[in-house]
């Protein structure tokens, strides 16, 4: 029986009984339980498999061993292989499970938040055979009573699983006052989990962001945050090994149908997320859609265009070349909060930046952040370009630009950028405030949206070069300058040549041509006035 791709399916039971692919994540659950921990928190971007993970955990604690064991399919359900947890779990014990999910619905005001909480408490009470849900005015007290009643009636401590714990806040993030109201409701709800410790066996909260302990988890300060723990880095997402083993039949089928999927191209487009450990991971949604459609497209990005993110970055004047490399501390990565959202933190927690590597300097741990893959680089920069140049007309320039870059065709390349910059309205107010940064951001985002390989703010022994472009065997080393008048000064190219930024690339493997390009923008005309190559 051929297996099916579980696109959009978050039910562990359905996946196991109906013959869908499943990448075994149960060793991570065994590790959490064996460590003796009780309270866990995990942050991952949207569509990374958090809901399926929680459903798997629920099935394990509720004692549904048949879903984890091997099955021959004789009863008409799909045959399935055994999972790790089948023989690494105490199936003699069953626990009542309370599940709260804020993943669906819109939370425009406090009434909506309260209604969803009340509904879910009622549903949990009914599913656990407890009758009516508690009717306390405060949601936290109602949850506390529900936990006590479940533990008493079932004679076992309770498992509490919370999915998308932060969505009521994120839905109101454009309105800080309303978001703060939602945060207060959730703080009341989650704070009781600490006081209910004697009636709890296991608590797991997941979400996109990590709000600070002070703002949301002041009453639940014993959470074990495993977001960047090496041991749990691959708890969500697929690894290269998963694609080469679990999904090998899909690659074989694509090749047999005359639509082969190149593994290296799949890796370039969708791999690259890293939270520690030895392996980088793929967004599962991307992999499943790529295997189903057999096309390389920004599947994950297209499911929810980050309008708020784009507007915020533009308003703040985010220097878009920083997407290729920026740095953050551990404290900064976890400092997401209403009214104080560093751009780097927001980009990382939403999945548009990932950890490239950990850097230790003088006893301080720093994280180098970068765009994870081609999907994000292309799609995010297209969206940013539209925001930076809001009256831009769509032009079919990508193929011309890529060809010009590969062939070292400076004239064609300038013509395309002249056309791009000519679209800047005369009365357009530059959000970055600094013209050179604005022009450099436009230049970078346009090139990044084509998918060409870029290195921004590249370090050399003599300083930092603004942009390095590698197109096949041709490397372009670019310096930007803003000039006061309407004529070129030659300063940009002169700096390149004086500091010989290109030296590091002339002997690089596979490089046959290195071009130094100085680009000068006029503050007066808002156009390119200098374009000099060497």
Can you tell me about this structure?
The chain has 534 residues and is of the alpha/beta class. Helices cover 39% and strands 16% of the residues. The chain has 21 helices and 13 strands. The strands form 3 sheets. Strands 2-3-4-1-5 form a 5-stranded parallel beta sheet. A hairpin with a 2-residue loop joins strand 7 (354-361) and strand 8 (364-370). The longest helix has 20 residues, at 176-195. The mean pLDDT is 89.
SSE topology:
Blueprint lengths: L11 H6 L8 H9 L4 E5 L6 H12 L35 E5 L8 H18 L11 H16 L3 E6 L3 H4 L5 H20 L4 E8 L16 E2 L14 H6 L2 H9 L6 H8 L13 H10 L5 H4 L4 H10 L9 E4 H4 L9 H7 L4 E8 L2 E7 L3 H15 L9 H10 L2 H12 L13 H16 L2 E8 L2 E9 L2 E10 L7 H9 L3 H4 L6 E10 L5 E6 L1
Parallel strand pairs: 1-4, 1-5, 2-3, 3-4, 11-12
Antiparallel strand pairs: 6-8, 7-8, 9-10, 10-11, 12-13
Helix pairs in contact: 4-5, 5-7, 13-16, 16-19, 17-18
**Percent in helix:** 25-40%
Q: Average pLDDT value? A: 89
Q: How many helices does DSSP assign? A: 21
> Distance between termini?
62 Å
Report the biggest beta sheet as strand number plus sense, adding barrel if it closes. 5 strands, parallel
Cα shape: globular
Largest sheet strand order: 2-3-4-1-5
Using only C-alpha atoms, the radius of gyration works out to: 26 Å
Instruction: Give a count of the beta strands, DSSP E runs of length 2 or more.
Output: 13
Structural class: alpha/beta
List segments where confidence is low: pLDDT < 50 over at least 5 consecutive residues.
none
Strand content: 15-25%
């Amino acid at each position: 029986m051929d297996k099916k791709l579980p696109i959009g399916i978050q039910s562990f039971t359905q996946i196991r009984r109906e013959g869908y692919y499943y990448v075994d994540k149960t060793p991570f659950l065994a590790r959490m339980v064996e460590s003796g921990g009780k309270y866990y928190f995990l942050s991952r971007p949207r569509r990374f498999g958090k809901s399926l993970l929680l459903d798997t955990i629920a099935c394990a604690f509720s004692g549904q061993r048949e879903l984890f064991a091997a099955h021959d399919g004789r009863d008409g359900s799909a045959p399935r292989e055994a999972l790790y947890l089948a023989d690494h779990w105490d199936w003699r014990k069953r626990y009542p499970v309370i599940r709260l999910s804020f993943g669906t619905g819109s939370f425009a005001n406090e009434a909506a938040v309260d209604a969803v909480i009340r509904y879910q408490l009622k549903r949990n009470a009914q599913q656990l055979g407890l009758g009516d849900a508690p009717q306390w005015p405060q949601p936290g007290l109602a949850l506390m009573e529900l936990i006590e009643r479940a533990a008493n009636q079932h004679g076992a401590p309770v498992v509490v699983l919370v999915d998308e714990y932060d969505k009521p806040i994120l839905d109101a993030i454009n309105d800080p006052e309303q978001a703060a109201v939602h945060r207060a409701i959730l703080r009341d709800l989650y704070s009781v989990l600490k006081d209910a410790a004697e009636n709890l066996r296991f608590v797991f909260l997941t979400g996109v962001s990590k709000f600070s302990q002070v703002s949301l988890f002041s009453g639940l300060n014993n959470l074990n945050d495993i977001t960047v723990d090496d041991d749990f880095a691959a708890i969500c997402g697929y690894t290269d090994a998963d694609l080469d083993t679990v999904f090998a039949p899909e690659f074989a089928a694509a090749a047999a149908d005359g639509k082969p999927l190149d593994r290296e191209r799949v890796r370039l487009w969708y791999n690259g997320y890293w939270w520690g450990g030895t392996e980088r991971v793929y967004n599962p949604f991307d992999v499943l859609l790529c295997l189903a459609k057999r096309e390389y497209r920004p599947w994950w990005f297209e499911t929810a265009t980050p309008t708020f993110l784009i507007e915020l970055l533009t308003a703040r004047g985010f220097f878009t070349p920083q997407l290729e490399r920026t740095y953050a501390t551990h404290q900064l990565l976890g400092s997401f909060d209403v009214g104080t959202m560093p751009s780097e933190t927001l980009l990382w927690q939403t999945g548009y930046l990932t950890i490239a590597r950990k850097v230790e300097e003088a006893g301080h741990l720093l994280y180098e952040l970068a765009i994870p893959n081609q999907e994000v680089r292309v799609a995010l920069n297209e969206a940013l370009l539209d925001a930076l140049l809001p009256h831009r007309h769509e032009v079919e320039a990508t193929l011309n630009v890529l060809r010009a870059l590969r062939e070292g065709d400076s004239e064609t390349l300038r013509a395309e950028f002249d056309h791009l910059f000519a679209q800047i309205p005369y009365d357009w107010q530059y959000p970055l405030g600094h013209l050179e940064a604005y022009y450099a951001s436009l230049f970078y985002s346009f090139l990044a949206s084509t998918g060409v390989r870029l290195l921004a703010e590249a370090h050399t022994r003599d300083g930092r070069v603004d942009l390095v472009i590698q197109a096949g065997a041709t490397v372009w080393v670019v310096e930007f300058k803003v000039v006061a008048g309407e004529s070129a000064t030659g300063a940009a190219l002169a700096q390149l040549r004086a500091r010989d930024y290109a030296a590091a690339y002339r002997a690089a493997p596979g490089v046959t041509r290195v071009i130094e390009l100085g680009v000068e923008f006029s503050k007066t005309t808002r156009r390119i006035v200098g374009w000099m190559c060497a």
